[in-house]
Write a structure and sequence with these properties.
149 residues, four-stranded antiparallel sheet, 4 strands
């Protein structure tokens, strides 16, 4: 009987999202929002759904903080941009009961985008405060500037 364990192929380790990267994403989102004249909030979550960074513009409506966080959480949990999920929760959509079936802070409005490194989910960014189209554009601009997808 052999006492050595069988060799298994290990999953490559992917570096987690860092607070420094979260800060860079927040700064990039703030610049993108300012360029569009939008006052809002940005939230960055790690892969476990834990808060890595948050900023609310002084002139933003207070609820933008909640919407940015819920958008990031939704994008993280479903590993998809929230802009791609809106139709799924309409009355005839595949996930139409999901927002009420779960006791989770999901929000199916554009502005949440998952973050990947080497093809693996490492977190999510959410922006709230503008129109859904503006929020989505701000999130994508921040992510593109950071080099994460």
């Amino acid at each position: 009987m052999s006492t050595t364990a069988p060799v298994t192929e290990a999953t490559p380790t992917v570096r987690p999202l860092t607070t420094r990267e979260a800060d860079a994403l927040i700064d990039a989102a703030a610049r993108a929002a300012e360029g569009l004249g939008v006052r809002g909030s940005v939230t960055v979550l790690d892969a476990g759904g834990h808060l890595l960074g948050f900023r609310r513009d002084d002139a933003a409506v207070l609820i933008s903080g909640e919407t940015s966080t819920r958008k990031a959480y939704t994008a993280l949990q479903l590993d998809a941009p929230t802009a791609d999920l809106v139709d799924l929760v309409r009355p005839d959509g595949l996930f139409h009961t999901l927002p009420t079936a779960l006791d989770r802070p999901l929000l199916f409005l554009a502005g949440g985008v998952p973050l990947h490194r080497d093809g693996r989910l490492i977190g999510a960014l959410g922006f709230g405060g503008g129109s859904p189209e503006q929020d989505h554009r701000i999130a994508l601009t921040a992510i593109a500037e950071s080099g994460l997808v």
